[in-house]
Amino acid sequence: MYESKTKRWSLLFFVLGISIMMSSGCNTSEAPFLLNTVYVRAKKNEGLGELNAAQQKNLADTLNAIFGTPDTPELPQIAGVDFPGLVDLEKLRVAAGPVGRNESGRELGLYRKHCVHCHGITGDGAGPTASFLNPYPRDYRRGTFKFKSTKGTDRPTHEDLSRILVQGIPGTAMPSFRILDEGELDSLVHYVRYLGIRGELERRLIETAADELEDEELFLDLDQPGSGIFQERVSLIKEELAAIVDSWTETQVTEVPPPPVDWGSDASIATGKKWFFSSTTNCSKCHGDTALGDGQTNDYDEWTKDWTLKVNVNPLEDLEKIREYERLGALHPRNARPRNLRQGIYRGGRRPIDLYWRIKQGIAGTPMPAASSQLSDDDIWHVIDYVMTLPYDALSKPQNVPENQREIR
Prior knowledge:
The protein is an all-alpha fold.
């Protein structure tokens, strides 16, 4: 059954202009990509259709036909889509699959060795250790990344992803992988891109299927390859995939101007403090009047809002709704806590240029907004000046308490 079905998918997509290798769920010896059932349920609760088991399997098979499996990744060859310039198949195969070595001794299975226990085999950020971590590991399937040099919701550059691998993310469980050589780091960057592109297409196909499919209708029915609706949906896959790839290739790095001549002076710090507490920036609304990160603490990031907002979940009250999603693979909702700026730990990097990017363009997927258009580049530098003094401020230093007055906590 597996071989026959594989040939049908492969022949069909080849005829339609997508060169693929098909791996079906019938082959249980390989690690599978799991369908994003949390998003399927969110779309149902948003008012779209409910996808039954056969429809969900059909979508999973379609994605496997296009991208292969975690053990054997593939890339579609579609006219006008520059995959080779964005994701290299040979590098994917170094990062993918079981941990081991090839005949020349090169290490393979890098993602599974270093990343899967947190980020999951599907890149859903829900690996075996994820529920113990705060913040949770990144779910790559939105294509949204926090710490980058590009504008707004633009995708990160290759250098951005590589920098995270080399430096890690301070204050989180994401370690530095500086010990890996350049080729290994490069392979992991390509694999993360692959998971992001695959996950974005998966979300778009789920949305379309939930909106359009009748009760027993499949997204791609192999028994009707000549039908108009079948041709339309294959064309849709090509268009959506092309748009996703374009979004990764059309990124724009935010240029960082030099700081003003008085940067580092008392006057610059005072100006930054004024802006920090102004109604223009509202920095203190989230980071707090003392910059301890204790202002607005009840918001959530976009990965959580992806499903909680669809059902108006109140994590303190709607525990049964939450458990429904947790059974599908969602992690329990946690608030997106603003940074305690007095600790001097900045997850996106502590260089002034890193802080400039965080303030200028915000942090994608989080409540941290981009700087107001009313704030000039010099003003942003002044805010950075003030923020960088906070760890050394008198209020940030532990007080000397006599030993006989110390409490054991």
